[in-house]
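Researcher: Sequence recovery benchmark, item below. Answer with residues only.
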């Protein structure tokens, strides 16, 4: 005889959730956020580079650092590299702007940095 109620052999969805984590507990796995500049600080430094008119999230807005309560578009920080996607004013040397952005981010993070120019703007 079949019933629609869960049995002890078949726990309900709430029994499958991971256990709650105490935010004040030590991090035994070493997964705590690294120290150093935040994605927002890097975004501010990049947009301060002469010729950069903005950050770009990629075709599907997939290029971002996701944070509680929001995200930083155009900045991806990994353990071994950084990735920055920018929009550049066409009146500037595109390669020169990309090189300056790479240098700024590498100086801040100590990570090798790949810079992608996603778009250009033309000021009229």
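Model:
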């Amino acid at each position: 005889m079949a019933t629609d109620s869960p049995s002890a052999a078949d726990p309900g969805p709430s029994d499958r959730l991971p256990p709650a984590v105490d935010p004040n507990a030590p991090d035994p796995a070493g997964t705590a956020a690294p120290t150093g500049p935040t994605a927002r600080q890097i975004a501010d430094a990049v947009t301060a580079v002469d010729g950069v008119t903005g950050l770009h999230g990629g075709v599907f807005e997939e290029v971002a650092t996701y944070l509680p309560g929001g995200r930083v578009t155009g900045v991806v920080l990994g353990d071994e590299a950084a990735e920055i996607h920018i929009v550049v004013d066409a009146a500037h040397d595109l390669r020169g702007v990309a090189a300056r952005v790479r240098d700024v981010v590498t100086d801040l993070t100590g990570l090798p940095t790949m810079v992608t120019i996603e778009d250009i703007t033309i000021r009229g």
